[in-house]
Amino acid sequence: xxxxxxxxxxxxxxxxxxxxxxxxxxxxxxxxxxxxxxxxxxxxxxxxxxxxxxxxxxxxxxxxxxxxxxxxxxxxxxxxxxxxxxxxxxxxxxxxxxxxxxxxxxxxxxxxxxxxxxxxxxxxxxxxxxxxxxxxxxxxxxxxxxxxxxxxxxxxxxxxxxxxxxxxxxxxxxxxxxxxxxxxxxxxxxxxxxxxxxxxxxxxxxxxxxxxxxxxxxxxxxxxxxxxxxxxxxxxxxxxxxxxxxxx
Length: 248
Description:
Blueprint: E1 5-8, H1 13-16, H2 20-30, E2 34-37, H3 45-55, E3 58-63, H4 66-71, H5 73-83, E4 87-90, H6 98-117, E5 121-125, E6 133-134, E7 137-138, H7 139-145, E8 153-157, H8 158-163, H9 168-174, E9 181-184, E10 186-189, E11 194-196, H10 205-214, E12 219-222, H11 231-244
Parallel strand pairs: 1-2, 1-12, 2-3, 3-4, 4-5, 5-8, 8-9, 9-12
Antiparallel strand pairs: 6-7, 10-11
């Protein structure tokens, strides 16, 4: 069974800044089944939940910065509980040395334990800086090595995995059962971050989708960090490409 398709709203941040609810309406109109947040448009959780319900959109995750996770975690948890969002995701973290990684693992264990205690899940979203090796192991693998009792799972960004020179489908297979959310981000080049619509670049989307299904992932999430033209048009093209592939 093919996985449902969501979009990370960071992709259309220029639109959400102007009209948050209106952008959600456009996203639903394209055909996306879910949205992942990168901010909530200053809307109360109750209000946003009603907007999503009216548009038949599912909240599939929330990118939440390290400052909020460390300083206002109780508020973050309560908001996501009221919204009905299960996955709280750290979108980036400074990991420039093995010491940074070990400290982050300790921090994330504590954050994840508190989130799990409330019935939610904590995830980490990679870029490519986690693919520096320390004593023969990637930083990303070291990060997960010290995570205990499911305190943190993976939101693999397959575009950045490809950009780092690894096979995204194989990485998903390696962490089977631990990657409920999968970002599908496409690049036109791996020599520099040249973002493009999903299906218009180098990413082997079908292999990633198949691996994600086998690994027990729940959602595929389109993300495009930069768009050359209209961001809404870019996410529309990505969705239409996925439809042509038989994935949406």
